[in-house]
Design goal:
The protein is of the alpha+beta class. Helices cover 25% and strands 31% of the residues. The chain is built from four helices and nine strands; from the N terminus they run βαβββββαββααβ. β2 and β3 form a beta hairpin. The longest helix has 12 residues. It is globular.
Length: 160
């Protein structure tokens, strides 16, 4: 294999993280970050996290707020884009660079994202639709198979 590996999703120092260009999402992110996750983790009664991906074109870090669910230690996300006919930018980014940073409440960790397989998706979709029932109507109108994303934490380094 030749070439350089993609840069990590976790800022090595003071790398700038660009928040969603959507004003209300950017406000939500700001509140979440400024409060250390004590405000914004629950949004309109639903659990939300902050997902940071690396831009597939720009190489810059991009952060958005998303509703999430859990499957044991795994975090579940739906790439619904509000039922639009195209995938959201964050999903396209993680397809290119699956290494992500997640803030869920006060906890921040790195992980790896992948799209749920066809066998995994039905059960996980039901879990997510129980949290946010509009996902079913989004799927009906999207004209595409809305991806369900699984984020698994990076392994914690053991004692040396």
């Amino acid at each position: 294999m030749t070439g350089n590996p993609p840069p990590p999703a976790t800022p090595p120092g003071d790398e700038e993280v660009l928040d969603s260009p959507t004003a209300w999402v950017a406000r939500h992110i700001r509140t979440y970050v400024e409060s250390g996750g004590t405000k914004g983790h629950t949004f309109h009664g639903m659990p939300t996290l902050l997902l940071t991906t690396r831009g597939r074109k720009s190489g810059k870090l991009r952060r958005t707020a998303l509703i999430y669910g859990r499957d044991a230690e795994r975090f579940l996300l739906v790439a619904s884009n509000g039922g639009a006919s195209h995938d959201p930018a964050w999903y396209l980014n993680l397809q290119e660079h699956p290494e992500v940073t997640v803030q869920a409440g006060a906890e921040t960790f790195t992980g790896r994202a992948r799209t749920a397989s066809a066998a995994e998706k039905p059960d996980l979709w039901r879990r997510m639709a129980a949290i946010f029932p509009q996902y079913d109507s989004y799927q009906d109108k999207a004209g595409r198979d809305i991806p369900l994303v699984i984020v698994e934490r990076d392994e914690e380094p053991g004692p040396s």
